[in-house]
Amino acid sequence: MRTLLILLALGSSLSAAPKRAKNIILFLADAGGVATVNAASILEYGEAQKLFIQSWPNVALSDTSTASSWVTDSAAGMTAIVTGVKTHNGIVSQGPDAVRGKKDGTRLKTILEYAEERGLSTGVISNVAVADATPAACYSQSNDRRSFGEIFLQVFDPRFGDGVDLVMGAGRKRIYDGVKEKGSNLDSVAASKGRKIYGEVSEVGESDARPIVLTDGDIKVPEAARKAIQTLSRNRKGYFLMIEWDTHTDNPEQGLGNLAKLDKLIREVAGMVNRNETLLVFTADHSFDLRMTGGRRGEPILKDYAEWKKTHKTNEPVKLAAVRVDHSHTGEEVIATGLGPGAEGFRGFIPNTRIFGIMMDALGWKR
Ligand SMILES: [Zn+2]
Questions:
Q1: What digits encode the pLDDT tens for the residues 144-155?
Q2: What CATH number has the domain bearing residue 211?
C-alpha cells in the first residue's frame, strides 16, 4: 500500500512537470493542404485517414496568410513557421519591413539559429533545391528567394554557433551557379571552412559530422533522413532537423505519391528516435488547389490520369472523375500536428506563427 502511494505520488509529480523535447524533427509537406493529405491516403490505401500522421491525437488548423496577402508562397509561409513572424511573399526570414528584391528588412532569428546558439546540432533536407525558400528560411535571411548564391553562402557565414551542420538536397547546378554569380567558387568557400560538398548521400563518410550533399537530380529523402538522424543524434545536447518533401499536385500522381512517401518516412522515423525526447512535427507551408469532386470506393482516385496526360499539357487544369487540380496555392488552413513532448500544443485554430511558439515551448526555450 505504502509503495503504491509513493508510486502514485511519483507519478503525479512527474506528470506535473511539462515534458521537454531534446530534439525536433519538422516534416514539411510543401503545398500539402488538407485536401492533399486526404487524397494521398485514398491513393495509397484506397481509404481515407489511413496515413500515420492521421493517427496522431494532437491536431491544429494553421492559418497560412502573410503579413500582406491571404495566399502565401513558401518563403513567407516557412518564415512564419520557423521565426514566428509573418512577412511578405518572396521574403526569406526577414521582417515585413523588407521589400522584395529591393530592400533588406529585419533579420529574423530562426529556430535553427536558436538551436545553434545553444550548441545543438542542426540540419535541413529537401527533395528540391536546398537553397529554395523552404529550407533557406531555416538557415538564411534574404529579401529575395531567388538569390540562391546569397542564400547558400550563409551556410558558411553563420550568426549563431557554427551554422547549419548538415545540408542535403537537390539543386546542385543552380546553387553552384548562384554562388558563381556572387563572384565566389562554392568548393573553395566550403574548403576554407573545412567542409566538403558531396554529390550523393551515399558518398558521405562515417566521420563527417557536418556534410553538405547537393544532388543534380532528385535526392533520396529517406536515405538522407536516416543519415541525418544518425549524424545529428551524436550531439548529447540534441538536434533540430527540417525535412521538406515537395507535394505540389500539378502532377497529382507525383504530389500525392510524395505525400504518402513522406508519411511512410515519418512512420519509420517515429520508430527510430527516442519518442520521449523527440518532438515530431508535420505541417505544410500552404495549401494547393486540389479538390476531390467525385470518385467511388473501389475505384482508383486517379483513374484515367494516364489518358488525360496524353491529351493535355501539364499546365492545364486537371479534370478527372474524382479529382480536379488548378495550379495555384490556396489560402485555407493547413494541418499542423505533432507527436512527442510538446505535441499537446497542437490544438484548435492557430496562426502559422504559433507553430514556432509550440516548438520553442516544447524545447523550453524563451524568445
Ligand atoms: Zn511551398
A1: 999 999 999 999
A2: 3.40.720.10
| Total Cβ atoms within 10 A of residue 210 | 19
Count of the separate structural domains present in the chain: 1
In the block, which residue shows the cell 513572424?
85
All three cell numbers of 20, joined, read 521537454
Distance in Å, CA 117 to ligand 1 centroid: 27
Ligand 1 midpoint to CA 128 (Å): 11
Round the average pLDDT of the chain to a whole number and report it. 95
Residue 237 alpha carbon to ligand 1 centre in Å: 31
Give the distance (Å) from ligand 1 centre to CA of residue 265.
Answer: 20
5 belongs to a structural domain = no
Helix (DSSP H) and strand (DSSP E) numbers for the chain: 12, 13
- Residue 111 C-alpha to ligand 1 middle, in angstroms? 19
DSSP 27: E
- Mean pLDDT check: name the lowest of 140-144, 226-230, 243-247, 302-306: 302-306
pTM for this prediction: 0.95
